[in-house]
Amino acid sequence: MPAPVTQPKPDAPRPPIRFRGRSFMATVLAPLPPVEDWLADLDALRQRAPAFFSGRPVILDLTGLTLDRDDLTGLVAELSSRAIAIYGIEGAAPALLGPGLPPALAGGRPAGEIEMPEPDAPSPEAAAPAPAPQAAAVSLILDAPVRSGQAVLHLEGDVTVMGAVASGAEVIAGGSIHVYGPLRGRAIAGAAGNPNARIWCRKFEPELIAIDGLYKAADDLDPSFTGQAVEVRLVEDAIRLALLERT
């Protein structure tokens, strides 16, 4: 008798792609004019403690500093030559940023001053402040719209935007996201691992939505919801849209 033909087993379904937010401590550098003198002071600090910036993510705060794009590019290059890695930029006009520069950041919460190290300081881990006790969830309310190129990251609770989220903007929340205007950018809720988070907006025109790591881009969304007041939630590990009742 001929040998029985063995049918190949169907491939197991692949799990959906997920991405999550994670909160890290970052050091904020806020240059003061004249920038050349500020860089000299920074060099003096590095001479006292050469390893102070080793392994530290750094945010560059340009609030109150007037720079053009060439100045900003030069400043980032100066810091890079000192082995200071810039992960994001605060307080810069969107027109200054773009390819070749760190992304814009907004919505950061101050975590206190970091003491300057003494000469021959120990490793950065020993010089870093002790971790703060776990705080209760706190909502972040933005009275201004989130403009193109801005990224708002708040993993400690909900984010409420009283205006619009523009195309090219991004809001990432550990909890839910409320947008009392058009949602045209990216809204990522439940980024700290909260499948019960939701997204609400008055006008649904997003580039991307996500909850607890599950996402859908604009091309994957039902066009009948475009321009409507919409709620986004997870139902059995799938993103579901529902129209909000208008009063």
UniProtKB/TrEMBL annotation:
Residue stretches making up the Septum formation inhibitor MinC C-terminal domain: 142-240
Chain positions covered by the region annotation Disordered: 107-129
InterPro entries, alphabetized: CAP/MinC_C, MinC, MinC_C_sf, MinC_N, Septum_form_inhib_MinC_C
Keywords of the record: Cell cycle, Cell division, Septation
One protein family per Pfam: MinC_C
Positions of the Septum formation inhibitor MinC N-terminal domain: 17-82
SUPFAM superfamilies reported in the protein's UniProt record: Cell-division inhibitor MinC, C-terminal domain (SSF63848)
Ranges in coiled-coil conformation: none
Function: Cell division inhibitor that blocks the formation of polar Z ring septums. Rapidly oscillates between the poles of the cell to destabilize FtsZ filaments that have formed before they mature into polar Z rings. Prevents FtsZ polymerization.
Family according to the record: Belongs to the MinC family.
Quaternary structure, from the entry: Interacts with MinD and FtsZ.
Name of this protein: Probable septum site-determining protein MinC
Encoding gene per record: minC_1
